[in-house]
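(Fold this chain)
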Amino acid sequence: MPNIRPVSDLRNYTDVLKDITAGEPVFLTKNGRDRYVVMDMEEYEKTRAALKLMSELARGERSGKEHGWTDIDDVERLLGINNG
């Protein structure tokens, strides 16, 4: 169940910080609407890394569709991998 609190709870931020655990962000509302998220730094870094990876994969897919794909044998040859 998500931990949702009004942003005004930040007046006593130690209580808000106690509620933060890895994988369990605290969602803060302002005027009754979702506004901010407070999360564990390690979880934030994992999320950023995942978004970067997804972006790079999408970029590679677009490139493959626009310019064609490279055959696995060509990739192995470029990398100096010998499967023989």
Remarks:
- The radius of gyration is 22 Å.
- The helical segments are 13-18, 41-67, 72-79.
